[in-house]
Automatic annotation (TrEMBL):
<dbReference type="InterPro" id="IPR031343">
    <property type="entry name" value="DUF5105"/>
</dbReference>
<protein>
    <recommendedName>
        <fullName>DUF5105 domain-containing protein</fullName>
    </recommendedName>
</protein>
<feature type="region of interest" description="Disordered">
    <location>
        <begin position="163"/>
        <end position="188"/>
    </location>
</feature>
<dbReference type="Pfam" id="PF17118">
    <property type="entry name" value="DUF5105"/>
</dbReference>
<feature type="domain" description="DUF5105">
    <location>
        <begin position="18"/>
        <end position="171"/>
    </location>
</feature>
<feature type="compositionally biased region" description="Basic and acidic residues">
    <location>
        <begin position="177"/>
        <end position="188"/>
    </location>
</feature>
């Protein structure tokens, strides 16, 4: 999820507000809303958009992408994938840390660098993969049956995510914030 923050293009608009939000504050509100489910009211008050709709959109996008990756796009695994997403979000809230700083204070196109210590996905995938291989060794039919395969992958992630550790190094991403009157756009 934290990677989502860094790779997604997020349009933030300060509709109805007479004060333009500073770039660092806009970045902090966006990250706090997306990762930690904090600043939800600030997000709505400041940007005129529903944080709930944003969060729902991320969950739907995750579900579609994950379903495509496991090659089960008929919707039959969506509830399981949704539970996986919820487990991921819960763990990210528990351990993720971030910092933000303005690196270019240009009034029209300032740049905010967001550094995130998120979940160590490489270790998580390696652990899940080892568990999957053990399941396939015990039941070779898993490898040939798409539904069994998908269930084994999801079960592996559900088992590993709650104990996932923070990646030891930060991932930094400069985000440019363009000001258009009352509107602010952050993009990676």
């Amino acid at each position: 999820m934290s990677v989502v923050v860094l790779t997604a293009v997020i349009t933030l608009s300060a509709c109805g507000s007479s004060n333009t939000v500073e770039p660092k504050e806009a970045a902090d509100i966006a990250v706090n809303t997306i990762i930690f489910n904090k600043d939800v009211e600030k997000y709505k008050d400041t940007f005129g958009k529903s944080a709930t709709a944003l969060q729902k959109s991320y969950k739907e996008s995750f579900t579609k992408r994950f379903a495509a990756n496991i090659k089960i796009t008929d919707g039959s695994m969506n509830d399981d994938i949704g539970e996986l997403y919820d487990a991921y979000v819960k763990r990210a809230k528990e351990v993720t840390k971030y910092t933000s700083k303005v690196t270019n204070d240009d009034k029209k196109k300032p740049t905010v660098e967001i550094s995130v210590n998120g979940l160590d996905m490489a270790s998580l995938r390696a652990e899940r993969s080892a568990a999957f291989k053990a399941k396939v060794k015990a039941d070779p039919s898993i490898e040939k049956d798409a539904k069994k395969n998908a269930k084994a992958v999801i079960a592996g992630y559900k088992a590993t995510i709650p104990k996932a550790e923070v990646k030891p190094s930060q991932k930094s991403s400069p985000s440019k914030a363009e000001s258009r009157g009352e509107q602010r756009t952050l993009e990676d």
